[in-house]
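in:
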């Protein structure tokens, strides 16, 4: 039986959530910081070209990071919702062992006893050829083998 890990214990899920939160927080910080600096400089009349044009570019980068964080969090939410729709299998039942029980109290399983085979159905094995037996080369050949060689010659 295969069991699926819960989403709460899934490391990739938490990496997605944490990465989305970090990306969103950094993006929000960049947007608020750069637009605040740009607004103060424009209102006071002290804004430099680098603050105006660079601030706009940094604000776009921050907005992209903020959007990626929001999309990541929505993806994690959709993943959690989809995971909750999948039916979970029942947990495996674990049987506890009673270590205090005597072995004589236990009933033998049907497979624990020796199989009984009636003697009438037991047949001797059929040997179609002689078994291969290793014989030293100094042993003389059997008489039947030498007589067959003489007939061919």
């Amino acid at each position: 039986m295969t069991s699926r890990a819960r989403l709460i214990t899934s490391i990739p899920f938490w990496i997605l959530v944490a990465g989305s939160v970090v990306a969103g927080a950094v993006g929000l910080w960049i947007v608020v910081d750069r637009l605040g600096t740009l607004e103060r400089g424009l209102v006071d009349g002290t804004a430099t070209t680098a603050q105006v044009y660079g601030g706009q570019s940094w604000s776009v980068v921050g907005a992209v990071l903020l959007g990626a964080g929001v999309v990541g969090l929505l993806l994690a939410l959709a993943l959690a919702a989809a995971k909750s729709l999948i039916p979970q299998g029942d947990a495996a039942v674990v049987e506890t062992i009673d270590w205090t029980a005597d072995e004589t109290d236990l009933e033998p399983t049907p497979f624990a006893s020796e199989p009984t085979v009636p003697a009438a159905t037991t047949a001797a094995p059929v040997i179609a050829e002689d078994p291969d037996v290793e014989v030293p080369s100094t042993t003389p050949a059997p008489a039947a083998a030498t007589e067959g060689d003489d007939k061919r010659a």
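note: The radius of gyration is 42 Å.
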